[in-house]
Amino acid sequence: MTEDALVIFTPSGKRGRFALGTPVLTAARQLGVDLDSVCGGRGICSKCQIQPGYGEFSKFGIHVDSEALTDWNAVEERYKSKRGMLDGRRLGCQAKVMGDVVIDVPPESQVHKQVIRKSATQRDIVMDPATRLLFIEVTEPDMHEPSGDFERVVLALREQWQVEAVEADLHILRRLQPVLRKGAWKITVALHKGNHDPHHRILEIWPGFHEGGLYGLAIDLGSTTIAAHLCDLRDGAVLASSGVMNPQIRFGEDLMSRVSYAMMNPGGDVEMTRAVREAINSLAATIAQEAQIDPKAIFEVVFVCNPVMHHLLLGIDPVELGQAPFALALSGSLSLPAAELDLSALNRAAQVYILPCIAGHVGADCAAVALSEEPNKSEQMVLIVDVGTNAEILLGNKDRVLACSSPTGPAFEGAQISSGQRAAPGAIERVEIDSLTKEPRFRVIGSDLWSDDPGFAEATKTSGITGICGSGIIEAVAEMRMAGIVDGSGLIGSAEQVRSVRSVPEGRTHSYLLHDGSADGGPVIHVTQTDIRAIQLAKSALYAGARLLMDEMGVDTVDKVILAGAFGAHISPKHAMVLGMIPDAPLDHVLSAGNAAGTGARIALCNRASRDTIEAVVHDIHKVETAIEPRFQEHFVNANAIPHAVDPFPELSAIVTLPQVSYNTAGAGSEGRRRRRG
User: Which Gene Ontology MF annotations are present (predicted)?
Assistant: First the structure.
């Protein structure tokens, strides 16, 4: 047995080697991982709960043995018996490292709570929900008319609301007679009509006129975050928006690593399905509490998700999505009871609708973006980019729409970055660098002040400056390119070359010092050469996907670029274009659509006809498969340069002059070594 072990924390991605016997809490503190504790490690406060992962983790190149942590001890047993703790959880102050291990820090154990940036976008929606409340007056029973109470409810619905073909489950029938009599033969029913169901289904009944609410959830189930909007099904109002990290991150940060986990660990898919369903139940309870409603008043859920998340939500092994021809078990829309997905936090009769997937790696979330942004109705050639751990791209107009997915990885989310973190208070989110002095200034989440503004230190005293999130690293790299700290190939220059002591040696490469908080016990935040490479790989995959669609469409430019998702709302078009993440276009033609996938989910939740619309539209969207398209690799290589090795950016050049510098002065051999290190 080795004398130390590799400890990897998710969702932060921070890792390090520690001596055997090191408490997990100690390892977390030394790595700067956001793991709470207020009792000094005595097993009293339970703030340091963690979730270890076991089995094969191909993404990290390690196998986690069942004995990677010390055994469950008396302190943990005492806490669980008195206070309760989810199965599989450990206390970070009690569990000690005994082998290589992957450890997830759940949201409730994080000091700086995740900021879920997928807020609801204002949208006018024609209300026609699949679930609605109807008040009816039911004929009383008559000795001369021996029909059952339910049959007379059906008759009342037909005569008073022109509703045909009504069904009810046994739990409704058991309660029907006392409810009818309590309401003096006047009742309110929650009635659901699925798009492909010939019957109307009674989900709930109340005596008299029910004045309580009727609610639905629109959920964007992403590989990194799960974002939910709680909507009033009577008027479409968004009562609350909330989100959590997807707990499947501990099994792999990207989709293919999760597929690999399922392949290499028997029962791994079941484990991931259970984790995500528990997270959705917890999120539903949290968002209901925030809106001060009873979660049992949630009668409908609409899901949008990528194909791997789609399969894992449904409990379908995603193994076929990990190999050509990337076959889906089901590509069409799906309607089913929420109980079949173990969504116990909702009303017991709640119904689920999942939008159709477009193809193997272009999922229901992309279909939701198409529903929200309607590229199929556009006169202009529009490029829609929804960036997450997996980018989904649409290109087209009223004549033709193409789609593809591109594996950007988690770098845009702040993962795989040396000082990277998820979006949380204290994370650097905006960066500017003076092109003459090379001095930076920045803003952090939770404050509107820049770091050189009076009062910044006081404003950030509570959160501190903890790291850099996805939007921050993107702006930092773009600013470094504009300031001449990074050359077109992505190399960081030395202090002598860039004329700044902020460029510091790091092995054979250099890094740029963005912030030094060591004097106050805070972190030292660098942008390293490895960070630059991670961003280059992510942006190259994104650009190559867009360029591939443009080739297929036979165009060299687009009229409009729409940035969707959290990325689109928080990255400036100029920085995205300087990096070469998106094709060249006039900056005023680059727009943000906010959380377009979430908006599409809300439209489908509130308007039943829109479900028929998107089900028809997806059949007309042509999917381009990046994984088997040889031109993708060529575009990917050319896109490694910042902004691009071949494609001109005339619109960008009109407003930004990029320094013509090259820091590859040590010869081709050294450059080759640098590339391998990145």
Answer: iron-sulfur cluster binding
**Calpha distance 648→556 (Å, rounded):** 10
Q: Please report where in the chains the tokens 């999922």 appear, as a residue.
A: 363
For residue 304, which of 374, 220, 231 has the smallest C-alpha distance? 220
Report pLDDT for 615.
Answer: 94
Q: Over 327-350, what HEC string results? A: CCCCCCCEEEEHHHHCCCCCCCCC
pLDDT number for residue 498: 96
Torsion sign over Cα 195, 278, 406, 371: positive
Residues 6+ away with beta carbon under 8 Å from 197: 335
The sign of the torsion formed by the CA atoms of 328, 329, 333, 337 equals: negative
Which of these, 556, 568, 555, 570, lies nearest to 650 by C-alpha position? 556
Domains assigned to the chain: 4-109 (3.10.20.30), 114-207 (3.10.20.880), 228-354 (3.30.420.480), 381-410+539-653 (no CATH), 415-534 (no CATH)
Identify which of 25, 14, 34, 677 has the alpha carbon closest to the alpha carbon of residue 410.
Answer: 14
Sign, CA torsion 288/293/294/296: negative
Among 102, 15, 35, smallest CA distance to 420 is for 15
Considering only CA atoms, which of 556, 549, 559, 560 is closest in space to residue 591?
Answer: 560
**Type of residue at 526:** H
Q: Is 220 within 8 Å of 121 (Cβ atoms)? A: no
| Low-confidence residues of the chain: pLDDT under 50 | 1, 667-678
Burial of 555 (0-12, 13-18, 19+ CB in 10 A): middle
Question: Residue 338 has which token pair?
Answer: 């929420």
Q: What is the pLDDT of residue 668?
A: 36
Structure tokens at 641: 């340069």
Pair type for strands 382-386 and 351-354: unpaired
Task: Please measure the distance between the N-terminal and C-terminal CA atoms of the chain and give it in whole angstroms.
Answer: 30
**CA distances in angstroms from 413 to 305, 453, 471, 578, listed in the order given:** 17, 27, 8, 19
| DSSP E strand boundaries for 264-333 | 298-305
Give the max Cα distance, the chain.
Answer: 102
Q: pTM (2 decimals)?
A: 0.82
CB 268 within 8 A of CB 55: yes
Listed residue (618, 614, 630) closest to 359, CA to CA: 618
Q: At 277, phi and psi to the nearest 5?
A: -65, -40
Specify the pLDDT at position 137. Answer: 94
Q: What's 142's DSSP letter? A: B
Q: What is the pLDDT of residue 40?
A: 65
